[in-house]
Amino acid sequence: MAELFSDEWMKALKDAWNAEPEVKDKLAEIGFDSVIACGFKDEDQPRGIFKVVNGECVEAGSYDGSGPNWDMRAKPDDWKKWARSGIGMTGLGTAFAMGKLKFLKGDFKSMIKDPRMAGPFVKSFALMGKIDTD
User: Fold this and answer.
1) Count of domains in the chain?
2) For the segment 77-99, what is each residue's pLDDT rounded down to a tens digit?
């Protein structure tokens, strides 16, 4: 088992991401490139980071100090709950509106309005559930 957002955990997320056509291929269709960081709300820096080029995750691991395009934060229990149960569009909107999911970087509102991005984003939460997490 790997700790949430550890180097090992992020590499497992990379493998799951690249194996999921509903995420990787759908984002490749729109030429999605981004550096995405994840972490906990009460910490100064994210814990994990992954780099996506044309929909494919090309690098993932512990946060390396680079500037992300997206920086998502939540409490550890919320991340684990979403990984275990997934999160639909309604749940995602609710988590954002209630402040459970914070975007320190990235434009959540424009992303969620674009189904070409929103669908794969929601599906990426289900990928977290495929990783054996402490």
Assistant:
1) 1
2) 999 898 888 788 888 889 999 99
Cα gap 132→83, rounded to integer Å: 10
- Whole-number Cα distances in Å, 38 to 29, 30, 46, 92: 24, 23, 5, 15
Tokens describing residue 13: 């997320």
* Strand, coil or helix: 2: strand
Q: Tell me how far apart the terminal alpha carbons of the chain are, to the nearest angstrom.
A: 5
Contact 27, 52 (CB under 8 A): yes
Residue 2 in any domain: the answer is no
Q: Are 39 and 74 in contact (CB under 8 A)?
A: no
What is the full DSSP assignment across 25-76?
A: HHHHHTT--EEEEEEETTSSS-SEEEEEETTEEEEEEE--S---SEEEEE-H
Model pTM score = 0.91
Segments forming the whole domain that contains residue 39: 7-128
Within-domain flag for 33: yes
